[in-house]
């Protein structure tokens, strides 16, 4: 079972953790959800926590934070008012998104991390067979932002040829197959969904080699420009 980003503030109420552990034991189902919790790197972590029966709780802290929404650039300098410091209180994690969840090697991401090209390549290289993205899109307001965000997330499933499970509180919760096909295209309000997904092991060309082809293309363009310039010089 997966639930959205920053659903609970464990740093403020430690009793919630015990309640969640009891819930996992009662329903006999592993639970993955987003919380705010004290980070080992100092400050708060925007964290995915994995609860399983009879196992230690493990977590993943968001690594790519959004400036002026989750953290302040150059926060040590006296540039920003105190209100901004209080709002932008997260610190970035450093551990890989690859985790073992219910015996499965999964790659975790929080919100806009899954919009970054190649974000899951490292985890897929390490053996991830399923991608998971949890998100909170209450910040977006009315408009096409949730749909655009989902389209970016679709690309991560396509480029890695992995199933993606995506859970959002105000956006679109869905599963995405390795070809980018959605199981749900509309917001699921006040309910949930159950879907079957498959585990994949194939590593795509993009996962293996990344964006090197872009550099190669730029090199070819530069070489062609230089060659054209030299040809013009010879004809003068």
Concise synopsis of the structure shown:
With 236 residues, this protein is an alpha/beta fold. It has helices at 15-27, 82-87, 121-125, 145-160, 205-209, 212-235, and strands at residues 8-9, 31-38, 44-51, 58-61, 98-101, 104-110, 130-135, 164-168, 174-176.
Task: Summarize the structure in words.
- The protein is 29% helix and 20% strand.
- The protein is of the alpha/beta class and 236 residues long.
- The strands form 2 sheets. A 5-stranded mixed sheet has the order 5-6-7-8-9, with helices on one face.
- The protein starts with 7 loop residues before the first strand and ends with a helix.
Total number of helical segments? 6
Largest sheet: 5 strands, mixed
Shape: globular
Q: What is the helical fraction, as a range of percent?
A: 25-40%
* Class inferred from helices and paired strands: alpha/beta
Distance between the termini: 72 Å
Strand order of the largest sheet: 5-6-7-8-9
Which H/E pattern describes the elements? EHEEEHEEHEHEEHH
Which band does the percent of strand residues land in? 15-25%
**What is the radius of gyration computed over CA atoms, rounded to a whole number of angstroms?**
21 Å
**In total, how many beta strands?**
9
Mean pLDDT over all positions: 89
- Unreliable parts: none
Task: Write a concise keyword list for the protein shown above.
236 residues, alpha/beta, 5-stranded mixed β-sheet, 4-stranded mixed β-sheet, 9 strands
List the helices and strands and how they pair.
Layout: E1 8-9, H1 15-27, E2 31-38, E3 44-51, E4 58-61, H2 82-87, E5 98-101, E6 104-110, H3 121-125, E7 130-135, H4 145-160, E8 164-168, E9 174-176, H5 205-209, H6 212-235
Parallel strand pairs: 1-2, 6-7, 7-8
Antiparallel strand pairs: 2-3, 3-4, 5-6, 8-9
């Amino acid at each position: 079972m997966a639930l959205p980003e920053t659903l609970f503030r464990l740093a403020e109420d430690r009793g919630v953790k015990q309640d969640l552990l009891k819930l996992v034991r009662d329903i006999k189902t592993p639970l993955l959800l987003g919380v705010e919790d004290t980070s080992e790197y100092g400050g708060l972590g925007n964290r995915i926590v994995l609860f399983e029966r009879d196992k230690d709780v493990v977590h993943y802290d968001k690594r790519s934070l959004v400036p002026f929404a989750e953290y302040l650039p150059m926060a040590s300098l006296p540039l920003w008012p105190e209100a901004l410091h209080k709002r932008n209180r997260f610190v970035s994690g450093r551990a890989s998104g690859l985790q073992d969840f219910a015996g499965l090697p999964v790659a975790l991401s929080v919100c806009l991390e899954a919009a970054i090209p190649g974000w899951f390549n490292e985890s897929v290289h390490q053996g991830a067979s399923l991608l998971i993205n949890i998100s909170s899109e209450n910040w977006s307001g009315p408009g096409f932002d949730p749909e655009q965000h989902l389209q970016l997330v679709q690309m991560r499933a396509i480029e890695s040829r992995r199933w993606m499970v995506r859970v959002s509180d105000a956006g679109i919760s869905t599963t995405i197959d390795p070809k980018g096909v959605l199981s749900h295209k509309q917001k699921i309000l006040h309910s949930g969904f159950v879907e079957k997904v498959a585990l994949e092991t194939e590593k795509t060309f993009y996962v293996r080699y990344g964006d090197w082809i872009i550099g190669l293309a730029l090199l070819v363009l530069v070489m062609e420009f230089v060659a054209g310039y030299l040809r013009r010089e010879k004809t003068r």
